Amino acid sequence: MDIKIYENEKIREKLYYKKMKSGLKVYFMPKEGYTKQYAIFATDYGSIDNVFTPIGEKETVEVPEGIAHFLEHKLFEEPEQNIFDKFSRLGANVNAYTNFTQTAYLFSSTENFYENLALLVEFVQHPYFTDENVEKEKGIIAQEINMYRDNPNWRVFFNCLGAMYNENPVKIDIAGTVESIQNINKELLYKCYNTFYSPTNMVIFIVGDLSFDEIIKVIDESEKKDYKEVEKINRVFPEEPKEVREKFIEESMMTSSPLFYIGFKDTDNELEGEKRVRKNFITNFILDMLFGSSSVFYNDMYEEGLIDSSFGAYYTGKKSYGHSLIVGESKNPKEVYNRIMLLFEKEITSILLEEDFNRIKKKSMGEFLMGLNSVEFIANTFISLYFDDFLLIDYLDILESIKYKDVVERFNNHFTKDNSVLSIINPLR
Questions:
Q1: Are 333 and 261 part of one and the same domain?
Q2: Does the annotation mark 132 as catalytic?
Q3: Most exposed residue of 111, 207, 280, 381, measured as fewest CB within 10 angstroms of its CB?
Q4: Does residue 127 lie within any of the structural domains?
Q5: 382 within a domain of the structure (yes/no)
Q6: Best CA proximity match to 106, nearest among 357, 345, 302, 379
Q7: Full-model pTM
Q8: Owning domain of residue 395
Q9: pLDDT one-digit tens code per residue, 15-39
């Protein structure tokens, strides 16, 4: 077998890789002595991929918002038996998720792993869409959309994205709208499936005390054989201005106290692979240094009663978008925003201390090493990084390479008043 082995002696882990004849990539991290096994079958396809050139066609099409999420739901449908029941009988927990940039199907088990793996590969590769089951699903997903629309935490988040982005589809709810899903039919689902669920656009990652030879044998026997190979999918994203759409958005809903999201829109989103992952790490270092639970800002604001333990911050950057979010509950969200802006006006070296950087860098490295004891952490982190063209096995090396000057430089480029927005959900009066 044409198997490649990646090894990192620092973390004492190995990663096995094989590309199947179909173009499907398979990765495996052995964990000797572990009773739990975990597998993810994922595709580089998310809710923002709504304009593309379908396989076998020359013209681009625009499909309804929410179709990637709808497709994920429909793949669990079979003519006779329920997929969840099949996994349950084999002692496995199966699940799936769709986010902005990927869709994944996964299971964890402590027994019958290879039977569960065969089932995972088979059900993901055999869609069953009919006019009837598509219509039925619309009602189910409409209920889900309405449920989230009534959720203040969900609304304050998407209102923030809507304020930051003018054109980018990341501002659209992953499930779409009640109106958009009415335009989904089985023909469109097959069009999206045949394009984005091509093996060349997918990856399987497995972790546990298992045999890679047996894994490859099961996948080879379970794989569908009649695939058209897709070299590269032509995805089209709208031109996104650097400016935010609106600085402030406010709404009232059923909530006990005001909720807020403060967003900082990124403009340099063309980076790929190691450079993109590195930027993610550096920006999250900054946010932890400034707003983490051990920061001066957090403790001062907490003592004043302006924030509570729900306060936090994180950065996410993907293929066509990037933003930092500072979130929480407060009796006065506008004051929290103003205090953050005042903080950013201070001398950088007085708020971004090198000793804090060294402490947070060590903490991040420690958290990653601890995470390597969890098959869930390993698998989900692997998939997230893989579609950024980066392998988990190199994670610690990137963390180690980040220097204090990288943090200072990134701060100057990203955290400005011009690229900031404030989203608030107030309690109903």
A1: yes
A2: no
A3: 111
A4: yes
A5: yes
A6: 379
A7: 0.94
A8: 248-427
A9: 999 999 999 999 999 999 999 999 9
